Amino acid sequence: MRTIFLFRIKNGEGYENRIAEALASDLGRSVEYTYFPQRMGFVRNTLRKQDPVTREYACDLIIGVPAGYELTATTKPYMRSTYALVFPLKGGLANVRKPDDLLALPEEELSKLRIGVFAQSPGADWLLRNKLLRQAVPYAAQSGDPNENPNSIIERELTAGRIDAAIVWGPIAAHLVRKHSDGSDWRAVAFVRDPQIKFDYAIAMGVRFGEKEWKATIDEWIATHGEKINAILTEYGIPLVDENGNLVSDFKTSEAMHAGKQSPHDALQSLTSSTDSFANKATRRE
Asked: At what angle do helices 150-160 and 170-179 cross, to 10 degrees?
């Protein structure tokens, strides 16, 4: 089985790697990763790419795509996450525990903040609604550089101090917080469901159109291994929301669930029963 990641960690330490390894192990298959930059042509150069001699495809499964993605057939969702505000703990930002706390900062301090945001994202809409667009530092989600991705861009800009905070997809924020948890602490706070701006999205796995048996196999694995998947996600501190947009698992690891009101087991059970879902990446059968 070959696997491709949209949120890629080439050293094999990403949460999607872990999900792919768990899937392969349960199906009695091996995993071979195929990497391609997150840009135009991703599906064409992975899931649809076929060797002219062997007729083998570069991969058979994309571990993370939006549910209902138009370029692939999609499985049951295995995850629903949300966008987040991520920032190093300094100045007044140390008191920010939810996105709206940023708006409550003194005007003199708030007006000086530079906030990184990707074009045509929920973050841009939120800044516009709150009259903060003049402080936005915009970035292109697809830079054209195969070595660049939203994760590397935001980490570099925050570390260099060119921006003070950024609004990114929750799993990216989780990775940054985990990476900078020693010394210069970083924090991420999740956006809750908003009647005007869509922040949370269901993630599924992508397969080729027409491969109904393969899709059914993956659907069954997702449906019967929700607790295992959720345990991986909470271990990595991925912010998870239920189908109603309620935050069930925060950026803290499974040792400290959101607000301390649920045990990890109870929160995972809640997610499994209410969403029966989750998804994000790519793989090849052998």
From this structure: 50
Of 194, 169, 280, 189, give the one whose Cα is nearest residue 244. Answer: 194
> What total number of domains does the chain contain?
2
**Which residue is it, tokens 């900062």?**
105
The mean pLDDT of 118-124, rounded to a whole number, is 94
Same domain, 11 and 35: yes
In the chain, the amino acid numbered 263 is S
C-alpha dihedral (252, 227, 285, 6), degrees to nearest 10: -30
Do the bridges between strand 32-33 and strand 2-4 make them parallel or antiparallel, or are there none, so unpaired?
parallel
- 182-191: average pLDDT: 84
Q: Pseudo-torsion of CA 68, 244, 127, 137, nearest 10°? A: -50
> Are both 186 and 92 inside the same structural domain?
yes
> In 230-269, at which residue ranges do the beta strands (DSSP E only) sit?
240-241, 247-249
Beta strands in 52-111, from DSSP E residues, in sequence order: 61-66, 73-74, 79-88
Residues 161 and 179 in one domain: yes
CATH number at residue 130: 3.40.190.10
Give the predicted TM-score (pTM) of the model.
0.84
Please write the tens of the pLDDT for every residue from 225-247.
999 999 999 999 999 999 999 99
